[in-house]
Please model this.
Amino acid sequence: MTDISALEGDLIARIAAAEDDAALEAVRVHALGKKGVVSELLKTLGALSPDERKTQGPAFNALRDRVAEAIGAKKHALGLAVLQRRLETERVDVTLPAPAFAFDPNAGRIHPVAQVTDELIAIFADMGFALAEGPEVERDDYNFTLLNIPPEHPARQMHDTFYLNARADGSRPVLRTHTSPVQIRTMLSQKPPIRIIAPGRTYRSDSDQTHTPMFHQIEGLVIDESTHMGHLKWVLEEFCKAFFEVPNVTMRFRASHFPFTEPSAEVDIQCDRSGDTVKFGEGDDWLEILGCGMVHPKVIANCGLDPEKYQGFAFGCGIDRLAMLKYGLPDLRAFFDSDLRWLKHYGFGVLEQPSLAGGLTR
Model:
């Protein structure tokens, strides 16, 4: 009769002594292979009496399970040791200066949309605006209802908006059509005064030279007890001067209509389109750049604030459109083609971080 305890001790010792995967595999074959010592033990059960099988069968199976478990644990430990040795040999001290031949600042390029987004954040941060974010899959009421957009409004139709499958309660979430839901979430969670910008991806069913199904937008919101249209005009003028890097801008506000602002306005900026590029702050032409207005009292009330006490303004514009205007990019669809040649030509160096002190652009 085989001494199971002695056999198990011998196998466990062999497993512990294995220094690599090859040695461990040899132990596994010796113990659990087709002709392994444990496998041979299990084959003897057929020759035993029924009473002996009742006692020896569980003992042999338990031995097999313990040996297999020990082999698995050892294999995991060997893998960790290999990984640790590899990490030790491949360690890089990132605090050391990179050799000139190893670092090419032009190897990677920052996408114009990412660059312009950083520029916008730098500009509005200098004016005291905080950065706010929200989900891209949004509730219908945050995207439409609380923004005073009625059920029959065309923007709610499926030819304009991407709807997702209905949830258990019957509601249908949407891919947000603007970043305005971030304004709603902010007003619901914070007490005035509020001063935020909300950049991010938005989605609408549209595609041509100047529209894509997914695009980038930035919106601003100010809510307090004394803000008026004069403050809005000043913020937009300072923004345009900083972004287009010109000493002066001339703007005009045209009356418009948005469900979530009253009064509402479209903003044009003076420009010169006589040459190959658009020049701002001069010329006799006009170019629309954004929409804005005073936050509608119903929107303020929908967010649990008193419209008799609080008021404010909001504005929004497309980041992709701003990038096209500033850097002379002719086709919006190329932004999303993943063409490395285009990115190498229009992209920005990894060290070109925008700041108002150092200059926004190269």
